[in-house]
Amino acid sequence: MGGTAAAPRTVTVTVRPFIWLLGLAPLLAGCTLEMRVEHQLLCRTNEMRWVRETLYFGATRVHGGEVDAAQWTDFEKSVLLERFPRGFTVFTGKGHWRDDSGVAFDEAVRVVTIDHADDVSGNAAVRRVISDYRVRFDQEAVLHERSAACVSLKDGD
């Protein structure tokens, strides 16, 4: 077949916002996507931008028993205070938990809040505290929340 080649055609397609995402759904099935959205926290001039870590330590052990007051006090002194000598706050309460096998139960819980600079050493210290608790007290998990905070260490500023 002889003749001249046809000139390429340009096609303009207008797609409504987000409709194109439907076409990606089969490609993303079974994939895990991680999205990190950072919001700039505006602190006053007398405040520091730090991180607030909130850790939820359940008292019920996986294989029976509970973390008692003396064991918790030892954990505070030997782990928490060692890694966060500037301080932390502990609250006690009652929590609800569903384990990996689907069994739900109530348990005593200690909630620890720690404010620290957002740096490698502070972040590593939090991960180590969680790991130490899980190993020491036979825990399936420790719930961990992380948020930005404006911190002032001086009164009335």
Describe this protein's structure.
The protein contains 3 helices and 4 strands; from the N terminus they run H-E-H-E-E-H-E. The chain has helices at residues 19-28, 69-83, 120-136, and strands spanning 48-58, 89-98, 104-116, 143-151. Strands 2-3-1-4 form a 4-stranded antiparallel beta sheet, covered by helices on one side. Helix 2 (69-83) runs antiparallel to helix 3.
Secondary-structure topology with pairs:
Elements: H1 19-28, E1 48-58, H2 69-83, E2 89-98, E3 104-116, H3 120-136, E4 143-151
Antiparallel strand pairs: 1-3, 1-4, 2-3
Helix pairs in contact: 2-3
Radius of gyration: 25 Å
Q: Specify the helix fraction band.
A: 25-40%
Spatial strand order of the main sheet: 2-3-1-4
Overall average residue pLDDT: 82
Kindly estimate the percentage of residues that lie in beta strands according to DSSP: 25-35%
Question: Which structural category do the helix and sheet elements fall into?
Answer: alpha+beta
Order of helices and strands: HEHEEHE
**Assembly state (oligomeric):** single chain
How many H/I helices?
Answer: 3
Uncertain ranges: 10-15, 18-22
Distance between the termini: 86 Å
Number of strands: 4
Q: What shape does the CA trace take?
A: elongated
Q: What's the main sheet like? A: 4 strands, antiparallel
Task: Name the descriptors.
elongated; four-stranded antiparallel sheet; 4 strands; 3 helices; alpha+beta; 157 residues
